[in-house]
# Entry
Amino acid sequence: MASGALTFCHWLRHLELAAQRDVESWFAALTTLSRGFGFQHTAFAVLPRQGTCEQATFACSTYPSDWRRRYRECDFAQIDPLVAHAREHAVPLVWTSRQYAGPEQRALYAEACRHGLRTGVLLPMHGPGLSPGMLCLATRECAQPRVLARLTQTLPSLALLRDAAQESGRCFVEQHANEAAPRLTPRERECVTWVAHGKSTWEISRICGCSEATVNFHMGNVRRKFGVTSRNVAALKAATMGMLELP
# Structure
C-alpha cells in the first residue's frame, strides 16, 4: 500500500479478518494484511496482567522460530523496550535501533537484526478491562529516510488494522486465558476465596466444616497449581485472573 489512505477495498479486507472463526485463519488473514503494507513479519500479543503467570500471554507470530525460542529462553521481554512501550503508552511507535539504548538492549537488537528484524511499527493495545497488548510489524529494511517516511505514512491505516485485530481477536484471547488458567476444584476455590478475605486456616475450617488439615491440603494444591509457595500470593493471582468472587 503506497499511502496511509484506507480505501473501500481495504475495509473489505478488514471485514475478512473479523469473519474468521479459528485463530489460525484469523492470524493468517492478519499476516496477509500486514504484508500488504510491506512488512515481512507480524506479531500479535496480549501481555499477562501483573501477578499472573507467563502462560497467560497470548501470542501469534511469524517471527523466525529460532528467534522466538531464543527470546523465550533469555526472557528478553524483561529488557525489550518495545514491550515496555506497549505496557506504558498508547501511541504507535516507528521503531529502529534508537529505542535500544543500554548494552543489553543493543545486544538484543543486534540479535534481532540477524533474524531479519531491523525496523518496524509497534502499535500498543489498551482498553477498559483488557490486558495491555501490541501489534508489532517488522521489516528487514534498514532505517533509511525513505523507509521511515513510508512507515510513518502508513500509521493511520495501521492503527485501524490494530483496532480491527484487537476487536476480532478478543474471543481467541479469552479462550486462551481460560485454557491457561489453573483448574481449581470447588473446594480449592472456596478455600482460596476465604484466604483472599483474610481468614485464617482455623477460620476457614470452621466456615467450610472441615479440619484444618483439609484446608491445608487444598491450599497446598492451590499453591502448586499457581507455582507459588505463599497462599496469599496464590490468592492474589487467583483474584487478578478473575477466578474469585470478591466484594
User: Anything to note?
Assistant: The chain is about 55% helix and 10% strand. The domain at 1-180 is CATH 3.30.450.80 (Beta-Lactamase). The two ends are 51 Å apart (CA to CA).
